[in-house]
Design brief:
Layout (H helix, E strand, L loop, with lengths): L2 H14 L13 H4 L8 E5 L9 H11 L3 E5 L12 H12 L4 E10 L5 H21 L3 E5 L9 H21 L3 E5 L7 H10 L5 E4 L12 H8 L6 E4 L9 H10 L5 E4 L9 H24 L5
Parallel strand pairs: 1-2, 1-8, 2-3, 3-4, 4-5, 5-6, 7-8
Length: about 300
């Protein structure tokens, strides 16, 4: 699949969830913001630990109050958006978001494709398909999955090929429902050269990578090299930790996203409990994001032209 073909497929898949890809843009109109590099990028939330105990109305209300207007719902948490929902319950979830300014960006499954046992792998693929159907029904645009590890006693190349082939299977299924498959950079596969090997096998145009802001991003040849290894496969979502977490070059990362003119959601995946009021904590993180993006734009705009 050529990069041009992949870009065309990405545009197609995003158009199916166009409402989820019209994020608020730092107090500007969408038209004016889109004139700036990175102007179609916005800040949202993964309900990893911040938000895990909120039911759906509370989650939507808190995100709206913080102006964090995109959300990826993680499985097993209190908002209860799970494959077991009835058709009517799915309609109700979709209506909750449709009646709010908050976009349902997608679902965060916990499915992984590293299982040495064929039965477990087959179950993971079928469960991923259930999440794809669910995301379609509730108005999401994709499903997050994991690679995830390199089991002992199995040749790494065999596991990498298995993960890639499994992603092709669920990628093709997801395309039929207008749902991206978003491979989170995670687990023992989190080093970006390993993710690149997986993606070389997973060449279906509906398989994308979800950057995860791990410390492994800084290994091997460093952040910029690792980012460039996979940026052509980015989908509609990327994950960031709290943007004041020490030890990670957040400004450098944001400059890379701005430079490539990324047009998706950077979703906060925060551990622990929010410091103080959770709405205020989310709003502070959004403001940090806006400041980092603004600084990155200024830096790029003032670089000498060659």
């Amino acid at each position: 699949m050529t990069s041009v073909d992949r870009r065309s497929f990405l545009k197609w898949s995003l158009s199916l969830g166009a409402a989820a890809m019209t994020p608020a843009t730092f107090g500007q109109t969408a038209a004016s913001a889109s004139l700036s590099r990175g102007g179609d990028m916005a800040f949202g939330l993964v309900t990893y630990q911040w938000g895990q105990s909120w039911d759906l109305p509370t989650l939507i209300r808190n995100c709206a109050a913080a102006e964090v207007l995109g959300v990826e719902l993680r499985t097993t948490h209190a908002h209860g958006v799970e494959p077991g929902l009835s058709a009517e319950q799915r309609r109700q979830v979709k209506a909750h978001f449709a009646d709010s300014p908050v976009q349902l960006v997608g679902l965060g499954s916990n499915e992984r494709f590293d299982h040495p046992r064929p039965e477990a792998l087959a179950e993971a693929i079928e469960t991923t398909k259930e999440f794809i159907r669910l995301s379609h029904d509730v108005g999401g645009t994709g499903v997050k999955v994991k690679p995830n590890d390199l089991p002992k006693g199995v040749e790494p190349a065999k596991t990498i090929a298995q993960i890639g082939k499994s992603l092709n299977t669920v990628g093709a299924f997801g395309a039929d429902y207008g749902q991206q498959i978003r491979l989170e950079v995670h687990g023992q596969c989190a080093r970006l050269p390993i993710i690149k090997q997986i993606l070389d096998v997973a060449d279906h145009p509906n398989v994308f990578v979800c950057w995860n802001s791990n410390q492994q991003d800084l290994l091997d040849e460093g952040l910029t090299h690792n980012f460039n290894l996979v940026k052509d496969r980015f989908g509609a979502t990327a994950h960031v930790r709290p943007l004041d977490t020490p030890g990670y070059p957040w400004q450098d990362l944001m400059a890379l996203f701005v430079k490539m003119d990324y047009a998706g959601w950077l979703l906060l995946e925060a551990g622990g409990s929010p410091p103080g009021d959770p709405v205020e904590a989310m709003a502070r993180q959004r403001k940090m994001f806006e400041d980092l993006v603004s600084a990155a734009r200024k830096e790029i705009d003032h670089r000498p032209k060659r």
